Amino acid sequence: MNYSINEIKLDLQAQFDNSADLSVRVFTLKSVLRIQAAVITMEGLVDKEQLSQSVLNPLLSFDYGTKDSAAVSDTVFSSVMASSDVIKLSCADEIVTYITSGFAVLFVDGADELYAVGVQGYSFRGVSEPESEVVQRGSREGFTEPLRVNMSMIRRRMKTPDLKFEQMTVGTDSKTQLMLCYLQSQVSLDLLNKLKNRLNDCKLETVLASGYLSEYLEDKGSGSLFSGVGISERPDTVCGKLTEGRIAVIVDGTPAVMIVPHLFVEEFQSVDDYSNRTYYAAFIRLMKYLSFFVSVFLPGLYVALAQFHPEYFPTWLLINTSESLAKTPFPVTVEVLAITVVYEIMKEAGLRIPKSLGHAVSIVGALVIGDSAVNAGIISASTLMVVATAAICGYVTSPLYPPIMMLRLFFIVVGGFTGLWGITLATAVVLIGMCAKTSLGVPYLSSLSPFSLRRMRDVFIRADWKRLSRHTIRVQKFPETEVRDADRG
Amino acid sequence: MQTEVKFSSKRFLLALLLCACSVILLQNNNLSPNASFSFNAICIASGLAICFLFFLPSLILKKRTDSDVPTLARRYTPKLRIPVAIFYSLYFVYGALYFLLPYIDMFHTKYFPGVTPCLITLLMLICCAYAACKGVNVISRFGIFLFLFALLTNILMFGGSLSELDLGHYGFEFRGDVNSFVQNTLYFVTPSFIAVIFACCSGVTRNFRFRQPVFTLIFTGLKYAAVIFFVRFALGDYAGRQTYPAFVLSRVAHFGPFAGIESFYLALATMSVFMIISLFLCCISRGACTEGNRKCVIIFTVIIFALYVTATYINSVKEILSNPVLLLLLTFAAAVMLPAAYIFVGRKSNAKGN
Question: Which structural domain, as residue segments, surrounds residue B183?
Fold first, then answer.
């Protein structure tokens, strides 16, 4: 098919409804036949200097003599273009995808070829340390927004041809690019196909962040507070997961890379665990598990004990707690719930307001809500301490904060209404829910339940590297996974 | 939620071990006070030996066909499928109430007198129905966590009672009579209900070995012996006058100023009963329709609740639902007669096929 500049120009202007940022630059090439060519770009997405130097200058200064359109097109792309990133398009429908990704689409009037030249030049945030995954001894590099930059960060760490990137597009309107990243020799083809099918089934119009897709990657019928999709902003973490047969999903425009399958025990692992000495890493790991339990259960247990079983408090604590609770106007359940909710509101306020106002919120939180409320007898000091301890412990495993928060509220209500009995039963229900959950066919609680002694060397403690390196544990080898380790021929 | 994944038989038997062990937690003057510890040990051995005999037909069935009774009923006797399903449903409804009644009674009388028993039962049954919808595999996974908790509770309960032990006063003499032997042995046959669960759900397990149920029963026996030993030698004659002596043991246990182990005991009993009823509901749905069928589970949960409410108001119903002899007879039919019949039917069909 021969492409006409006028037709394509009119078509694009109709599609973009004469949008101001669409640029169609038509120019006449130096030839006897006065052949025209066009460069289509989106304003603000291309580096103009690069466009001039690698595309326009060589194109306009070259003398094409008496060649016809097709021959000129061949010459342009074989001899004239100075860019290394040139992609031949299969049809005119692809023009929109490429120009909105920062490419310049170039073609000669009357020729049958369309080319996209990589001249991306939009501004983006530089590579910096991810704030949500700070480490002491690991790399300071974190993912950033552009897809290609993120890919390069992984490639620099995994210098093997085994590392594959597979491109997909999601979002009927946003046409968001994403990359499936995996190690060919480690990944299960079954798992890969399952993931691709789920992404293909995604019928969203717009995908602006990786979070939009995470629900599509979750297994059906495993509705749970916990997520079966891991998120990381660290290239070293992602590379570590890839060696275990996992698949990373990098979405253009977001630094949060999704990793599947994702297990509960992984929430307690961090890059520092593998850099620190074994004994210290094991100690920190155990502290994280302890913090998780304290954060989830402490307020609920406190409410249950204070309300229904005060006899379980040691006498001195019982006297202090009873005295302080007796001075407050609300029942202990309401008190704990109120402080927890107020704390969450303050946390949200702290996150959203400008940093310059952050100190004011801290002062209001610490003095007014904390100290003054206790002195005024609105809340008891012991209750405040319990809620504060639980809140701090919740941040030790920050990826688990949303389920921790919900469970904490749930156990406060259950403890307040039904005491220890209710907490026991609620724990059983939560555990059943967690046992039933799977992440792309792999049981979410793998290593713990189904139990695997061999895999426990990196769960509660971290074994030394000599032992860890003996066998790489691939996810498809976990017991009771529905993922088959397919033959690769 | 996972489907069609066969899971480890070891884990299934661990779940059954936990169910069997919970029987002793709920004992309420079921044992003759005239019997000594050594005499009770003999009763435990004979009771669990009978349990093993109850297990045998379904073990043979599993070994030969790698399947369970509901599956074989569908395969070999499609016309009898519904009566078999009805019988098993009846058995498990009866079994659920048999364990639910003493549990709620203990909770109400010993731990939390102010509570409404029907409300507690309703909440418990809702949670069990939720678990049953998830299937046997998931419940057995939960069993691993319960096992760890049971281990902790037992260590606390027995460790905390060590200071109360008085071996010299009560001694190890062999004392008991025929009536006591029959009564106590009958009580120790109660865990044979796990053979019925095995007969209904063993088809979804893999790597089965004959020694697994043997070890299950041995560990059950050891747990029973430990509880009776501590009740006898730590509580003494006081235990004989108490209802739910294992609960009293947990209340007596302490580590210096640290007491309150009965809360651990109650949590263990709650989770154990939760697991038993969940497994029963699972077995019902496996037999009557398909595993984890929500409608089926909800219908039978409502039936169990309705029967519980009836039993609380009509004493004769409660007596029938708490009758150990009736449970034993039903267990015999469900664990021995039906599996044995399917061994026979299976052999006959194989012979025809050949």
Answer: 35-162+174-353
